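Journal club side-thread
Mid-discussion, someone asked how the predicted structure for our own chain would compare to the paper's figures. Pasting it here so we can look after the session.
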Amino acid sequence: IFGGAFGGGFGGFGGGRSRQHRQNRGTDIRVTVKLTLKEISEGVTKKLKISKTIACAECGGTGAKSGSGYSTCTKCGGSGYVITVQNSFFGRMQTQSVCPDCQGEGRIIKERCAKCGGEGTERGQEIVEVNIPAGVAEGMAIKVEGKGNAARRGGVNGDLIVVIEEIEDAQLLRDGNDLVHTLNITATTAILGGEVEVPTIDGRVRIKIVPGTHAGKVLRLRGKGLPDLNGRGRGDIKVLVDITIPTSLTAKERELMEQLSEQPHFSEAEKVENQNILDRIKAFFRS
């Protein structure tokens, strides 16, 4: 609690003051960037128009009128802080605080800039290019150093924090680096097999459905998912098969279905023990 309070020792008053000027820092700016799966897959450069504080065009960020400059703060002698000595139960103690006249800068503006009033900043806009690598995910943040708000009187600029937001795709659901698509096929396609189209990031492709495909079967398109952010390959597209059952039938269709239901392969199928739905879900995520 007493560290640094005694100027190097109990009798250390009047020692030389080291210059510990406070350096102003601009605040950070946080923005959200929305990306499609295509942009996440390939990586993208976004140009962002940022409203922010910038260095005053009139004084160049110094806060001083052209030709005016600064003078050393007389209250703190240019150190940026002042020392107060007080008597206490423990003896004489000295405390250090930021100089109230110069706010820790150690200098005073001789004549303030008329445009910014001595702050060295003004409101403006800047176009910032942000390179977003392939494979980013929802909630990740990219820091662009020095592109936040400008600091008072030539200090250090804040940073620009770019937060990633994924635009939900209508057909592909993200699962890590994998993508999941629910494929609806007809009962006849599930029984007889055939070719169907499924979406990918790069467009639609045709895949084969083998005869006797059950609902819940997972087909995998390897390497068609999203790239790993660290360059460790790509994920897959998992195609989850679902079978669409018509809700109404014509008289002829019903007659045909009744005839089929009496055939050996159809009647015996009802006796096959159904796989537990939880087992199917587990199998899907293991696939």
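Post-session note: Confidence is low (pLDDT under 50) at residues 1-19.
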